[in-house]
Design brief:
Blueprint lengths: L1 H21 L1 E7 L9 E6 L5 E2 L4 E3 L8 E2 L5 E2 L4 E5 H4 L8 E6 L6 E7 L8 E3 L7 E3 L15 H9 L11
Antiparallel strand pairs: 1-2, 1-10, 2-7, 3-6, 4-5, 4-8, 8-9, 10-11
Bound molecules: calcium ion.
């Protein structure tokens, strides 16, 4: 009985820790910025409490989950946003699409991950609705703030037929 109680307690602790971690999401990525903007990753605390992110990791390859370590002492408040640009990260993001991972301080527990495709210049991918939804092309870049609505479908189609990847066309 005592063993069962201990196991139950341990399980509940694990559930609480998991829930505490699960509220931090990768909320937006800018992968094909127009100057002077830079590539960036936005994290969002979608929970009700601050979370100490010191020692957590961000990466764009599952072959190396500890590519960039978030400095110790960085705490994200409930409902707050935190942005790391490419100069802070030490790596840039692919405009042709890839995946981004947020890993716990243990270096292997993936807290959140998103995958996305090619991005038109100056257009970011992000969760819509903000903090909870699927990752879509956003109407405007909102690094550091709540995500905008998605690009309306006809616009997405128009961008797509202009040419993937990068959606760019040279002007004469
Ligand atoms: Ca945002």
């Amino acid at each position: 009985m005592r063993c069962f109680t201990c196991c139950l307690f341990g399980f509940l602790v694990l559930m609480l820790v998991s829930r505490a971690s699960a509220v931090i999401v990768i909320n937006e990525v800018l992968t094909n910025p127009t100057l002077p903007a830079r590539d960036g990753i936005e994290l969002f605390d979608n929970g009700a409490t601050p979370v100490d992110l010191g020692g957590w990791y961000l990466t764009d390859t599952d072959a190396n989950l500890t590519l960039f370590q978030i400095p110790f002492g960085i705490v994200i408040d409930a409902g707050a946003y935190l942005v790391f640009d490419e100069s802070a990260l030490g790596f840039s993001l692919s405009a042709n699409g890839e995946s981004v991972f947020l890993t716990d301080a243990d270096g292997f527990t993936i807290v959140d991950q998103i995958s996305f495709g090619a991005a038109p210049p100056g257009v970011s991918y992000g969760r819509s609705p903000n903090g909870t939804g699927p990752v879509v092309l956003l109407e405007s870049v909102t690094l550091g703030g709540p995500n905008s609505p998605p690009i309306p479908e006809p616009s997405t189609f128009l961008l797509a037929i202009l040419g993937l990847p990068g959606f760019t066309r040279r002007r004469k």
